[in-house]
Design a protein that fits this description.
The complex is a heterodimer of chains A (97) and B (512).
Chain A (H helix, E strand, L loop, with lengths): L6 E3 L7 E6 L5 E7 L2 H18 L5 E7 L4 H15 L12
Parallel strand pairs in A: 3-4
Antiparallel strand pairs in A: 1-2, 2-4
Helix pairs in contact in A: 1-2
Chain B lengths: L10 H6 L31 E2 L2 H8 L5 E3 L10 H11 L5 E3 L9 H9 L3 E6 L1 E2 L1 H8 L7 E3 L2 H9 L7 E6 L23 H7 L2 E6 L19 E4 L6 H4 L10 H16 L7 E5 L3 H17 L3 E8 L1 H8 L3 E9 L2 H9 L3 E3 L2 H5 L13 E4 L3 E3 L4 E2 L10 E2 L3 H4 L4 E5 L3 E2 L2 E2 L1 E2 L14 E3 L4 E3 L4 H6 L8 E2 L1 H12 L7 E10 L5 E8 L2
Classes of the chains: A alpha+beta (97), B alpha/beta (512).
Chain lengths: 97, 512
């Protein structure tokens, strides 16, 4: 799936993550800022990438500002950002969820 | 070699610095030799010096050990002014031996390390930019971290030999009688500084408030003081202590506090004449409030409260629920003011408070203590020194010392953000699990299996689920996932002494 527009979901409150998706053409490129990057950086990138793959998004620039979010939060924020970026926010892709 | 809590202590450090590896929390009854400082005799007529530069030029030489206290906390002005003068004079190779380092001192210490002025540090702790710099290998020699009681011990036994102590005081007369209670920069107890005043080769008081001779009550006495320096400002009163202490509204902290209170009141130690120490954290303050109600309901009064004092503890004193406060430092203005006005609030020095090599310290008489933790592991070992990223950001404070109480409770949330507090192995062991009796989290408690008696008495409290510590660790991991192990280099950046002076752990340089 092609990203139609730059979209954002989430906040920078503690225990949240802010995901910004924009067009890319070189796979999924995650730029992660996180206080727990050393311990959980790989896991955070994996959750974001896996979630985007379920939307069949294969090219995207992802800016992720993490404030200690758990996996379920990361997944939820990524789904929302992806729905918005694909202009699908009114037609939720339930199969992906 | 591996010490008794399983930490690898490099052999060269044990050998070169003549250290023993940690073995036991038992102190026993050894004979200990104390040291006494050289005294330069004077009649007291010419002690006043008008500038920091003049006193530094007169007293500080390359290679010396200098000390400060941290009673002025984040409002401290003295440390930065004195260190700047020392750097300006090009003095090198000093050992910095303060009672602790606060954030307001960080940038100056980093600067002094970079200029070669400071080459060794011993402290209770460090945080922020300084902790980060040290963890990244800025200092060639490892920092030595000691608890408040251990610092007192090391000074008394000559392990820390202070050449010049620079002690900021909110008042002094011209001959050096001073206390911490009066003046713009009043902070209450001088507990930690009293060690320096008693044992340093040269004692320099710095004050912005010269008062008529003789100044009483004198916590630091003219018999101990070499010079009195008049300065423009000792500290910023607004930042010395936090203002009015606010009770937490955080439901997680309140839940923890409630359970801590249940543990205390169901323990055999909760009886008339018991004693306790609480810290200054949100949950600890809330415990004081619950404990007050429990004391009223059960008509129980405490004989004394110990340690760092806050206004809620002072309120208990005024209400007659606590008979005495034994005060080594004051965390807020209410506590500091009270020391001036209430004879039942006794100033105590760090040795009286917590020195293990003593003819009894106050902590030896302590029944119940509530302490915090950055991490606690399945062996009940506690880390209050390094963060989850391995970087130094804490202080031992009185943790190891107070943990010798009859009932030592660690109050901590199961997780903080994505970081588990209950872990398989703490990053750095500060207080050994042998000292810890109960862990209280928001989901329930874990009792150290070595305490068979407590397993029995605390296992059936309504609303207080009991888990094994392994179960709590698993619960934490289910929430946050399994973190990747931290990476460190081979370089040792800090040594963690146990309160008896043995090595309980070392901190390695973080790999980035």
């Amino acid at each position: 799936m092609e990203i139609k527009k730059t979209a954002l979901a989430g906040t920078t409150e503690s225990s949240d993550i802010q995901i910004t998706l924009s067009k890319g053409n070189d796979g999924i490129d995650v730029d992660l800022t996180s206080d727990v990057k050393k311990q959980f950086g790989d896991q955070i990138v994996k959750v974001i990438t896996d979630t985007l793959n379920k939307f069949q998004i294969t090219n995207a620039k992802v800016r992720a500002v993490d404030k200690g979010a758990l996996d379920c939060v990361i997944k939820a924020r990524t789904i929302t950002a992806a729905s918005r970026a694909l202009n699908q926010e009114d037609q939720i892709n339930w199969e992906v969820l | 070699m591996k010490n008794r809590v399983g930490r690898e202590i490099p052999d060269d450090i044990l050998k070169d610095k003549n250290y023993k590896a940690f073995e036991t929390t038992e102190i026993g009854h050894p004979d200990k030799q104390r040291v006494a400082p050289i005294v330069t005799v004077t009649n007291g007529d010419n002690k006043v010096v008008n500038s920091i530069k003049e006193i530094v030029e007169k007293l500080v030489k390359d290679g010396m050990t200098i000390s400060f206290h941290h009673h002025l906390r984040e409002g401290d002005q003295i440390f930065n002014d004195v260190m700047q003068a020392i750097i300006d004079l090009g003095i090198k190779d000093l050992t910095l031996a303060p009672s602790s380092l606060t954030n307001v001192m960080n940038d100056m210490v980093v600067k002094a390390i970079k200029s070669g002025t400071i080459t060794n540090i011993t402290s209770s702790g460090m945080r922020g930019s300084l902790g980060d710099a040290v963890s990244h290998g800025l200092l060639k020699n490892p920092v030595v971290f000691r608890s408040h009681g251990n610092r007192a011990r090391a000074i008394e036994e000559g392990k820390i030999k202070i050449d010049v102590a620079f002690l900021g005081v909110p008042n002094s007369d011209e001959v050096g009688n001073a206390n911490g209670m009066e003046g713009d920069a009043a902070f209450g107890s001088l507990g930690y500084a009293l060690m320096d005043a008693q044992y340093a080769r040269r004692v320099v008081l710095l004050t912005d408030n010269l008062v008529p001779y003789p100044n009483t009550p004198a916590s630091i006495k003219q018999t101990q003081v070499d010079y009195v320096v008049k300065v423009a400002k000792v500290g910023d009163p607004d930042r010395i202590g936090s203002g009015a202490t606010r009770f937490t509204k955080d439901p997680k902290e309140l839940k923890i506090a409630q359970m801590v209170n249940e543990v205390i009141t169901h323990s055999p130690y909760f009886k008339d004449g018991f004693s306790f120490q609480t810290g200054s954290g949100g949950a600890a303050l809330a415990v004081t409030r619950y404990l007050r109600q429990a004391m009223l309901d059960n008509k129980i009064k405490a004989s004394f409260a110990l340690g760092g004092i806050t206004k809620p503890t002072v309120d208990l004193l005024e209400e007659g629920l606590v008979n005495k406060i034994m005060d080594v430092q004051d965390f807020d203005k209410g506590a500091a003011d009270s020391m001036k006005n209430n004879r039942k609030q006794q100033e105590i020095d760090a040795s009286w408070y917590a020195d293990p090599d003593n003819k009894a310290a106050m902590v030896d008489q302590l029944d119940v203590v509530i302490l915090s933790a950055l991490e606690i592991d399945t062996k009940f070992n506690v880390n209050v020194m390094t963060g989850s990223d391995g970087v130094i950001r804490g202080a031992i404070g009185g943790h190891q010392d107070a943990a010798t109480a009859k009932l030592t409770i660690i109050s901590a949330p199961l997780v903080r953000g994505r970081i588990a507090t209950v872990v398989p192995d703490v990053t750095t062991i500060v207080t050994p699990g042998d000292s810890i009796d109960v862990l209280v989290t928001e989901v329930g408690i874990a009792i150290n299996p070595k305490r068979h008696d407590l397993l029995e008495t605390l296992s059936n409290i309504p609303g207080v689920p009991v888990y094994t510590i392994e179960e709590l660790q698993q619960k934490a991991q289910q929430i946050v996932g399994k973190p990747k192990a931290l990476e460190f280099t081979d370089k040792t950046v800090a040594l963690i002494e146990y309160r008896d002076g043995s090595l309980i752990d070392v901190v390695k340089q973080v790999k980035d």
